[in-house]
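Progress against Task 2.4 (sequence-to-structure conversion) is shown through the following example record, which the project officer requested during the mid-term review.
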Amino acid sequence: MPARAYIIRTDGACRGNPGPASIGVALFDAERPGSESPVAEPDASISAAIGTTTNNVAEYTGLITGLQVCAALGDVRIDVRMDSKLVVEQMTGGWKIKHENMKAMVAQARAVIDPSVVRYQWIPRERNRDA
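C-alpha cells generated for the chain above:
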C-alpha cells in the first residue's frame, strides 16, 4: 500500500522576541479534493501556547509538532508549507545553520520522521493563515 500524503501548514510566533509564544499546525489529507486551496478547511489542527521563547524557536516548534502528528499516522509523505523562510531554507540545506540552538532544532525535526518523506515549501504569510 502506498504512503498516505499529507500537507501540513505550520507557524510559530511570539509577542516580543523573546516573548510569549504560540504555535499553529493545520493538517490536510493531500488526497482530498480541494486540500491544495489556501482556504481549504483542515482535517485537523493544533494550536498551543509554548511559553516564552524566540520567534525562530516557535517556528521550529510548530514544524516539529506537525511532523510528530504525521509520524503517528504511519507510512506517510509530507508536504510542509510554512511562511518561515529561515526554517524552510535551513531544513532543505539552502542556508547554513550557525546558531547551536537552531542546529539542535533541525536535528530534532529530522529525528521525528525520515527526512526523505518530507518536502518543504515556503509560502507567503497570507497563504498560511489557517496555521
